Amino acid sequence: MQLNHAQRELTVKIVYYGPGLSGKTTNLQMIHQRTLTDVRGRLLTVETHDDRTLFFDLLPVFFSTAAGFKVKVKLFTVPGQVIHNATRRVVLQGADAVAFIADSRRAAAQDNNAYWKNLQENMRENALDPAQVPVVIQFNKRDLPDSKTQEEIEDTRKKGREAVIGAVAIRGEGVLETLHAVLQQAWRSLDARAALQKNIGLSEKEFLTQVFANIDTTGTELEKEFPPRKVEKA
Questions:
Q1: What would the pLDDT profile of 89-121 be if each residue is shown by its tens digit?
Q2: Does residue 72 contact residue 61 with C-beta atoms inside 8 Å?
Q3: Beta-carbon count within 10 A of 197 CB
Q4: Where would a tag sit more exposed on the chain, N or C end, judged by fewer CB atoms within 10 A?
Q5: Are 1 and 190 in contact, with CB atoms under 8 Å apart?
Q6: How many whole angstroms separate alpha carbon 62 and alpha carbon 79?
Q7: pLDDT tens readout for residues 38-68
Q8: Nearest-CA neighbor of 188 among 71, 97, 95?
Q9: Which domains does the chain have, with CATH numbers?
Q10: H or E segment at 92?
């Protein structure tokens, strides 16, 4: 979190983490497509032959609070390939919360576990406490053969403290639900540390409502809570 009282700005950083080709970039692309053009930044992507994203994607969403603070929500992804661990560590610096994007196929379990351990290691390298930084787990690619059943995903949810969400990111399923969960956890963590509601007048409800007022929630579980506005085509 970056909180600048002089300029009345708050920046919240969310990092999408996980194995290569698990769907991190796809999540951000879907969010970008559904976000109103006048509040979203550019979706920056560097593609290479060995990984879809060499460095990171950066997608800022902007809004102003009732108390006059400008809020920037910045979404990053990390490169999934093993050789880019140093870049993952750099991108993870200062993360307020993490969306861990896992491949839900049983054959991907070893990779998921390896990158989960890698996330914990890189948090510690960045002086982030894995017990304090909120993490939301998305099990992506639920439409593919050999994917975990809903019962198996429920099992994972019961075993840990993290929120767990099923998704088919390429169809947009579970994408906004994951974003909502990780932003909610980020706000609660930041409010506990920096008293956002007391110090800058930003409540959890206003934070989430302002973000999702600018995102087309049509067809998602968030549609009733955050009724969609028409998204202008870029």
A1: 988 999 999 999 999 999 999 999 999 999 999
A2: yes
A3: 15
A4: C
A5: yes
A6: 25
A7: 888 777 766 655 554 444 456 677 888 888 9
A8: 97
A9: 2-212 (3.40.50.300)
A10: helix 85-92
